[in-house]
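*** Query protein ***
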Amino acid sequence: MKILKILKNGALILLISIVMLLVLEGIARLFIPSSNFKDQRVIAETIHTEYDPLLGWNNKPNFHYKDMYGENKPITINSQSFRNKKDTQIQKLAGKKRWLCVGDSFTLGFGVGDEETWCSLLDQNNSNLETVNLGQGGYGMDQSFLRYKRDGTPLDHDLVIFAFITPDIAHRMFLNELGDFPKPYFKMEKKKLSLKNTPVPRQPFIIRQLFGMRSNFKKSRLLRWIKKHVYKKPPAQKKEEISPQELASIVMSMLAELHQLAREKSSHVVLVHLPFEGDIHDESSGKLRRTLYSMAKQNEWDYLDLIQDFHKLSPELKSKIFIKEDIGNISGAKGHYTVEGNQFIAYLINKHL
């Protein structure tokens, strides 16, 4: 009887709380015009990712959203958090090769459907090839490396396509958070890689998820008012100062370990430097590309600089590579590869390999 009374009281408190929230929401809709909230767009990662103590965020397993990037442009995540329709077996299928695509949102395929990503396109005309998409929006090269180390190495594979854009090194590896999403980062200590900010703080991610999700919370004027006037973003940790020399050491050590991990799986690594919109008129990536080229030559690594191929295109063709506007209420699609852009990257990778 005592337990039943506690349950009844708990249910009553819950009911009263829900009624109060509905009343407050009604008052908010009466007195707070929707015009007070200009940005109605949602960050894509608040839809299809969840907190990850090592990586910061990662795809939700067994997730599917039919119209993620527009009508009939779905995103499908398998139980292993890969952007693949089917789960990937540990062992390769007999007679098939397996390539792992590792990288950021340009590898994930932000803005296009499951079958339109460059990673998916690689195996569509090759029945003897299986590709696995380990790309994730917002990742720096450090997170991509950690993703491969944890989630890629258990799989049998023949090739690691380790893809990145210039900001994945030149910007994101200096940060312990991207926007409101905390992330891990590396420092060099006693000439060895030292991983920092792990486990990644969880609280800021949960708050970001609450205010960014695509559910009815996003439509709530009460929650949006709280976000605008009450919620204060937790103070960011001090941005780590990393000298160019230390950054080069971090990248060198990280890529050396990447190649060693691949060799232990009887696999091979190809470093793929992808073009992004900033490369159209900006040659600032040239210094980094020369450094990576020198590093790769010194260590006998394969480095594909696809920015060179991109610059050979006419201005008209360059403009067709990138998405020009955000899609629907999803922010961030602008500047990612169009279907034609993904086809171009897949063609170049197949050509060089």
Remarks:
- DSSP finds 13 helices and 15 strands in the chain.
- The chain has a mean pLDDT of 85.
